[in-house]
Amino acid sequence: MRLAALWCGASALVVRQQPTRRRLRIAPRMAVSEIAMPALSSTMTSGRVVSWLVGKGDKVEAGDPVMVVESDKADMEVESFEEGYVAAIVVDEGSDADVGVAVGYLAETAEEAAAFEPGAAPAAAAPAAAAAPAGDAPESVSVTMPALSSTMTSGTIVSWLKNVGDKVEAGDPVMVVESDKADMEVESFDEGYVASILVDEGSEADVGAVVALLAPDEASIAEVAAFGAPGAAAAAPAPAPAPAPAPAAAPAASSSSSGWVATPGATTATPKARKLAKSKNLDLATVAGTGRFGRVTEADVEQALGIAKPKKVELVPAVAGEAAAPLGSVPMTGMQQAIAKNMEATLSVPVFRVTKTVATDAFDALYQKLKPDGVTVSALLAKACAIALVKTPLINAAYGASGTIDYNDHVNVAQAVALDGGLITPTLRDADKLSLTDLSAAWKDLVGKARSGSLKPEEYQTGTFTISNLGMFDVAQFDAILPPGQGAILAIASSKVVPIPMPGAALGVGLQKQMTVTITCDHRIISGADAAAFLKDFAAAVENPQSLV
Amino acid sequence: MARRVLALAATAAALRPLLPKRSRVTTRAALTMHDYDYDVIIVGCGVGGHGAALHARSQGLKTCVLSGGDVGGTCVNRGCVPSKALLAASGRVREMSDDDHLASMGISTNGVSFDREGVAKHAEQLVNKVRGGLEGSLGRLGVDLVPKFGVYKEPHVLDVGNGETMTAQDIILAPGSVPFVPPGVEVDGETVYTSDEGLELKHVPEYCAIIGSGIIGLEFADVYTALGAECTVIEALPKLMPAFDREIAKTAERLLLTNRGVDYRTNVFASKVTPGKIGEKPVIIEMIDATTKEHVETLEVDACMVATGRVPNTKKLGLEEAGIEAPRGFVQVNDKMQVLDKPDGDVIPHLYCIGDANGIQMLAHTASTQGVSAIENICGRTHVVDHESIPAACFTHPEVAQVGLDEDAAAERAEKEGFELGKAVSHFRANSKALAEGEGDGIAKVLFRRDTEQILGVHIIGLHAADLIQECANAKAAGTTVRDLAFTTHTHPTLSEVIDGAFKECVGMHSH
Fold it and tell me: Is there a contact between B425 and A6 if contact means CB atoms under 8 Å apart?
């Protein structure tokens, strides 16, 4: 809402309002500060000083009411932003002043206040600019964090309503500020062009702090931005747009999965892509679009800017409507490249595989029983592996390049999780020691982090053994490739109901749920008998799952 | 009079063959009534026709509804009802995808997925259920539901096709409305569509254009963005969301559009919209400046939703032939819902028109209210609907709701009638319940007369605004003063305290 609305209809109350407008010059600060006529509503252009609550020489604390102003809507007490001594009152009671014009001055000390002569000041309105030293500072106007309530000391910028380069008229809302009680749109009291935004969306600033700079005209935007930015290093919010990794000339229209060629001059990029590109000064024509009909999406722009976020991932294969399958050459993401490299590296490792069928009726029953406690299948499987790994430590070991068998003193079970466009192996560390509920909770946490791309290296690079589970995808059997630095990986397929000979059952045949698991081992250190021993222990743990609890 | 009506109503079924069918007519008129098939025939079976039929039966009138095969009408089949199902499902997707919001409440998920067909099916099943309920209620109350189209011939007489006619003492037209498609826009129902087809959710576009920033357009933008689509809104008027109070529209713009990466154009017509083909070619939208009529931009999108308002469904009602002038299809009525032969013209006897077709206020519940009102007038009890006290709601997340005048209109009235306009605003961010939900966005604004302290309008954007507006609508209808309201007790901790805060501020009291 508009700042002004707070006071509408409240004429019965005297509301405190701070002078939200401060025209600051960036360079040399005056020792004497202005008390300016504030805008108490969006329509107010001038106000009358009904009464002064302080006199010359009085000490004023920040937040002290200094005057009562009559606006078009209400009488309001106006508080001082700063502390100091009243040096001068230049607009008398009963007189009008335009919004923004100095009506009084505050000095830092009593002495300065006493010595102050308004005429000597870089005073009222326009002369201020003329009197100020014409240093190197380009002229600019600061947008400051306003006080939206008498108790507010700082505010969070919820969103910027203008971007760098946008023209701002006086009265235009420029940002939304969240205070302790309300979100408010804050209007600009000046016109100009947004030269730089110093406090980002979501960040907090103290009341009175400069949050953005306005340049007087389009031409001086760069100058103001360069001068006004805090510190040279931070002066470049958009360091010369990162060279797009896309082929140099890849106009969006050049190709698309559907073979569609965009209408010349048509807007094809999505709104978010356009907004991001504009804010980073990136030419959309240089971005290769991967959306439908070759459309440039937000992700494409992020990719081009080198700021691609780990994509938000849906672990369950989502029904994505009629999304066209990608065609042609699509650049691999960093994660995909890393996976490719790791996979190629495994070619030098001699491996062998051993497969076993494991009955899962009891396991499934236990899972159903423990599910309400938050226990997951992933935790149960990790636990079963951990038990077997403790019994056959060689499976938990790795081949040392210098001719050693490197045994691990931790049993860290990694499990592969498919991400949109990749794969990662969050790791349940010390799976042999943690309880099922702890493992389940840890797993949920890890998956959440994997999804948001916030896994720490120790959470996905410390596995001593890996499980690859495709049980949910109805596969009969598969084997997995050994990850670098580990001795073995277990591939777990779906469980199926199969008839088995069962003496005593009707016709001598009974039904059993079974799954097929396949272990892939590094044959340099592990032999077939070791693998078989591990599988026997694993099967025992799954088939008699009470041992897991 | 009222007592007599009641008594007759109670015994009407048993005595029907012997008694005049209606209680309000004079004895002489009653004697002639045996000639008609029904006391009242209602043409159209939407929410308006249904509301009229229910009230007609409660007054003991022999009632028939000609549904034209569309039981439930727009609201139930192609409007309010399915859209609420889509908004409910997509709203949950939005909530569960908002990791930051969830994390602030200590919740994490393993990601959200949805099945488009499942969401669409939810809407379809809801429609079937609600339509079934509506049809069932008519049958239970003894309304004859006939799946024919009714065409008006002359007072008391309807042509129902095949040379057949049906007659009634009074006829109520409730034919509803259909989506308006501007010239130059080609609707194929697949890639370019109106709410009629859009509610089937046949696909989720990656990038969708929505023409019109009214309630329908905003609700669709809400659904699409929740399901992962990006949207551009195209508004022909110079300001967005013309149906909302200006201040509310500003907040809505931020919460519903800007924050979701939805961009918009204003003062722009979609002058030519060419359908695409899913997977083969995009929809092409050519836009011209509304003022200069010059081409300003061409958009390529996956889908284009046309939400540019609705027009009366009155073409086939036989009005013109009967000498009834209906400008742009809108049937002219007086405040008793009686049809006039032309704007400010003469009353056509025994003919009423309710709902979207009269264009007074195109809302489902308004149609129903007008239906009840028409029956009251038919029964001889003069009744006039207080349209200014009827609330309206937009079911986006958060919701927007309003009743009465917006601030511009209120200021104009204050000026004209010479009273002082009062205004108070309260914030969801100061409300405990809203904060508990982590949904502190939004405001409630009360506009009132300072002299009488009566409500002129209330405008709310925020969590469950559509539920919060009812108290204000009732208060406005009853003429309750803001001072009286400020002294009522609102349940703590509920969102109703947002409204409480605004009422208190109206009279200089503090709520926190």
Answer: yes
